[in-house]
Amino acid sequence: MAKRSDIQARAAMMRVRFEAAGGQVVDPPLLQPAGTLLDLYGEDIRARAYVTSDALRGEQMMRPDFTVPVVQMHMRDGAEPARYTYSGEVFRRQEHDPDRSNEYVQVGYEVFDRDDSAAADAEVFSLFALQLRGLSLRAATGDIGILIAAVQGLKTTERRKAALMRHLWRPRRFRALLDRFAGRSPVPASREALLASEDPMGFDAPMIGKRKAAEIEARIEALREDAAAGPISDTEMVGLDSLLAVRETMPFALEQLRDVAVDLPQISPALDRLEARIAALAARGVNVHDLDFEAAYGRTSMEYYDGFVFGFYAERRPDLPPIATGGRYDALTRQLGNGAEIPAVGGVLRPDLMLEIEEATQ
Questions:
Q1: Which position has the higher pLDDT, 315 or 215?
Q2: Is 299 annotated as a binding residue?
Q3: Which residue from 171, 258, 260, 319 has the fewest beta carbons nearer than 10 Å?
Q4: Parallel, antiparallel, or unpaired for β 324-328 and 308-313?
Q5: Can you list the alpha helix ranges (DSSP code H) found in 132-212?
């Protein structure tokens, strides 16, 4: 395991490189308001974060990442365009894997720029690739925006599309909902009995558990609407299945996805953005013909990304988490911007893992 002083030295060196690329150094506070993070991630983050509280500031979390506070800072008083870099500790509980550190150093780079999203994506990816040059790593890329466009353009009810969007980052739940909405899985007997009842409420109590009667009535009405809706078509289901199965190098992946767009034409604008990104990466010297693209990549661990996503992995060390991850998070700026928004992309690296890999190869 690398020494703390060596990790800090490597982090400082990497941050200097990002400064040379135009990054302004920022240092968000170690303690972050818990409310914002809970709103973004839900209660799941509470189980992985270190939480404290005091009478004046309320509930606080030890910094679980940098991206959210950097976005908040920029949306509050940042100039445009802007580039930021940072390095420092983040804290995550690792109760399911005690061998993984619950405190580690991240180095990051974030770009806020309205002019050319494809160029900004390529800038971030290529800078990360340069930081990692010399290490035996596999780069993976994807684009959450393509799947988002596919779901939002389905010929089904808005309620169903909203349910699918909520579970986009939970593949098993997403698949279960998709199969149900397509009529591929049976309706639970309890739901059928509920909807067949002439008076499904059948009581006068103002509440059941923590739910009021009005909330239950609204839920029953939603179930009735869903039952009355036709299934998602076989054509759209074949398109979604084909989309999620795409795993190729970038140019061939784009070719396959263009074929998928025959069944899912709503993804064509997202594919145009992918094509522009491929060209921008090639212009920065990235060998796109050897760069992997997976349409389903990022769905289990990158919840605030909504477009381009990437990661670098040590294939010879499958026990290690990603050495670097990043992507586009335009929607996050809208959530934290109080009505304002700006296209944004960035990522983080783990200098401790880089040093560990280097030591193992010496």
A1: 315
A2: yes
A3: 319
A4: antiparallel
A5: 144-152, 158-166, 171-181, 189-196
Give the residue numbers spanning the domain of 243: 138-170+233-308
Q: Which two tokens stand for residue 48?
A: 């992985």
| DSSP classification of residue 65 | -
By residue count, the chain amounts to 362
| CA atoms of 200 and 108, how far apart (whole Å) | 54
Euclidean distance between CA atoms 313 and 320, whole angstroms: 8
Residues 130 and 143 in one domain: no
305 annotated binding-site participant: yes
Q: Tell me if 66 is assigned to a ligand binding site.
A: yes
Is residue 216 domain-shared with residue 102, that is, in the same domain?
A: no
- Alpha carbon distance 94, 102 (integer Å): 6
Q: Global pTM?
A: 0.87
In this predicted structure, the answer to whether residue 195 has a pLDDT above a threshold of 70 is: no
81 prior amide bond cis, ω within 30? yes
110 appears as a binding residue in the annotation: yes
Q: 312 labelled as ligand-binding?
A: no
Number of domains in the chain: 3
Instruction: Give kind and range of the element (H or E) at residue 95.
Output: none
pLDDT of residue 322: 93
What is the CB neighbour count within 10 angstroms for residue 278? 22
Is 177 within the bounds of a domain? no
129 and 270 inside one domain: no
Q: Is 186 exposed, middle or buried (0-12, 13-18, 19+ CB in 10 A)?
A: exposed
- Tell me: pLDDT of 129 over 60: yes
